[in-house]
Amino acid sequence: MNHLVNDRPFSQIPNLRQGVAKGLRKSMQSGDLAANLSFARVTAMHILSEDFLRLELQGDDLARFAEGALHFRLLRQRHADRPAVWPRRGEGGKPLWPDNDAQLVHRVYTGRQVDADRNRITVDIYRHAGGPTSDWALSNPVGERIGLIGPVGGGIPPGGWMLLAGDETAQPAILRMLETLPPETEGEALILAGAPGREGEVVNRTGIRLRWLYRDRGDDLSAAVRAVALPERDDSYLWFAASKSEARDIREYFRTSLGEDRSRCRASGYWG
Ligand SMILES: Cc1cc2nc3c(=O)[nH]c(=O)nc-3n(C[C@H](O)[C@H](O)[C@H](O)COP(=O)(O)OP(=O)(O)OC[C@H]3O[C@@H](n4cnc5c(N)ncnc54)[C@H](O)[C@@H]3O)c2cc1C
């Protein structure tokens, strides 16, 4: 389960006596669904490239995913022929996850585009080897009912000058920011992709310069981040997301080597 979201199965809540846990479990089984849980149907699947596919989701109450945090937890039932299990409403409104994780699969994704008026969300999924969620998405699950918990994680950071850098998993967030940040925003964006192909789709409404890096050319994301000449400005923000180990490395670079304050930088581990 990702560190960005504070949600645990109730069996893992410390100091919860066995009897209390049992009672809680019983009441939760019949209780309300988690407050920030919405449902949607997969209405379309598009292959975008060798590396990416897109799912279109249609729900009834997805407007809140257009505001604040950019991400959500995508929940799906592992076995369509078994009764569905969903998180219930826990203490303080937090989701209480069912113990039966074998049935419910959940991973964090970014709302690539959110149409609040039509209750539609588009999610771009990186096709990585051995990924149950990316394999599921590739199986063309049109018509399937899924859950969305959120919004979760970080939102669009403030900044007049921004460094936005990341790998495939960060690509949807970076592209959404390039579409939605104020047009006067300046900076550098670095996106690591497998190979050239999707550059023409980018809608960049900002003054941020976008540069693509390619794995098949041997480009190194961390080295490229360190090579960016940062301006002396009070309104800059440094944003990075990729594997956990790369994020650790870049967080150290931002905070220790550059001496950036936490309020002006963020390096997140999205996988690994
Ligand atoms: C805030 C946030 C936003 C995210 N947004 C997106 C998004 O919009 N699109 C997107 O595609 N992903 C996104 N991710 C990443 C995604 O949640 C993970 O890649 C997730 O692990 C995929 O789940 P899975 O079921 O396919 O594989 P898992 O069961 O989680 O992992 C199976 C194996 O694949 C490995 N693996 C996972 N991701 C990758 C990868 N990218 N490259 C290589 N190996 C990998 C794991 O380490 C593991 O060994 C986001 C993550 C976070 C935290």
TrEMBL record:
UniProt cross-references to InterPro entries, sorted A to Z: FAD-bd_FR_type, FNR_nucleotide-bd, Riboflavin_synthase-like_b-brl, SIP_FAD-bd, SIP_fam, SIP_rossman_dom
Organism superkingdom: Bacteria
Pfam name, any one: SIP
Xref: PROSITE patterns: FAD_FR (PS51384)
Segments crossing the lipid bilayer: none
Matches recorded under CDD domains: siderophore_interacting (cd06193)
One Gene Ontology term of the molecular function aspect: oxidoreductase activity
Sequence ranges assigned to domain FAD-binding FR-type in this UniProt record: 35-158
Family assignment from sequence similarity: Belongs to the SIP oxidoreductase family.
Stated name of the protein: SIP domain-containing protein
Naturally occurring in which organism (per UniProt): Thalassovita mangrovi
Organism placement in taxonomy: Bacteria, Pseudomonadati, Pseudomonadota, Alphaproteobacteria, Rhodobacterales
